[in-house]
Specification:
Elements (H helix, E strand, L loop, with lengths): L3 E4 L3 E6 L10 H7 L3 E6 L9 H14 L5 E6 L1 H13 L4 E7 L21 H13 L1 H10 L10 H11 L4 H12 L4 H4 L6 E6 L9 H6 L6 E5 L6 H4 L1 H15 L4
Parallel strand pairs: 2-3, 2-4, 4-5, 5-6, 6-7
Antiparallel strand pairs: 1-3
Helix pairs in contact: 1-11, 2-3, 4-5, 4-7, 5-6
């Protein structure tokens, strides 16, 4: 069962972390966001074989169990992929808005598609990463965390160690199977049919998504707003937490009806 932790009152704001991440990654912003919203941090399945479909089903179970209505769905990285799957499968009946943070609708390169993870992830790269996640989870976690900070920066080693320890709470099998499953999916057509207000948050110095995928998304998702954080990589809520809270809070205030 997917874990979840609610805080605060107001418009429900569901936070979905990414691959090899836990709700602890959102710690720099969760408290501030909970000052005006009912923040529900959802944990993705971290044990056994994991798929995007399973994660979306467990997310739906949490939304239903808490009877959330008019919720804002905020997914970061692979958590955004899970949010895309949720909307595709379950619709927007309980969702009032989407915040997609640092994600691409397709993780691998293809004809006419330059916005793959790391700028050029191909099937061979997927297999290498999947194998590393299984055989050397410590190296996989350390590389994933370090590579998430903005290009050209030296992250605080204590923070790297803390986030890497969180990443190692995932079983190698769950990490490998969820990544491989996500790498085979393509949400480009589905995102073109999204009907809820959407905010796209990207880091200008991201090494995970170094291409201008945010602009592609802004031109594809109907009415989407794009915010690029100049000093962030793949972790804008860690690298520019005050700006992140302000951006998300303002978007919700403008986009979600409180009637």
């Amino acid at each position: 069962m997917t874990g979840y932790e609610p805080h605060g009152t107001g418009t429900p704001l569901v936070l979905v972390p990414g691959l090899a991440a836990t709700g602890r990654f959102f710690a720099p912003v969760a408290g501030e966001l909970a000052a005006g919203h009912r923040v529900v941090t959802v944990e993705l399945p971290r044990h056994g074989p994991a798929t995007v479909r399973r994660a979306a089903q467990e997310l739906a179970d949490v939304v239903d169990r808490l009877d959330l209505r008019g919720a804002v769905l905020l997914g970061w990285s692979l958590g955004a992929t899970v949010a895309y799957e949720y909307l595709d499968r379950f619709g927007a009946g309980r969702i009032s808005a989407l915040v997609s943070v640092e994600q691409s609708p397709r993780l691998t390169v293809g004809p006419g598609w330059p916005h793959a993870a790391f700028g050029g992830l191909d099937p061979a790269g997927v297999e290498r990463l999947r194998t590393t996640a299984l055989t050397d989870p410590a190296a996989f976690a350390d590389s994933l965390v370090r590579g998430s900070f903005a290009a050209g920066t030296e992250p605080d080693e204590a923070l790297v160690a803390e986030l890497t320890a969180e990443a190692l709470r995932w079983s190698p099998e769950a990490c490998a199977t969820l990544f491989a499953d996500a790498a085979g999916l393509d949400f480009r057509a589905g995102l073109a049919a999204v009907t809820v207000p959407t905010l796209l948050v990207h880091g200008a110095r991201s090494r995970v998504y170094p291409t201008d995928v945010g602009r592609w998304l802004a031109g594809t998702v109907p009415g989407a707003e794009l915010r690029v954080f100049a000093d962030s990589g793949h972790l804008p809520f860690v690298e520019q937490p005050d700006d992140f809270v302000r951006t998300v809070t303002d978007f919700i205030a403008r986009s979600v009806s409180h009637a």
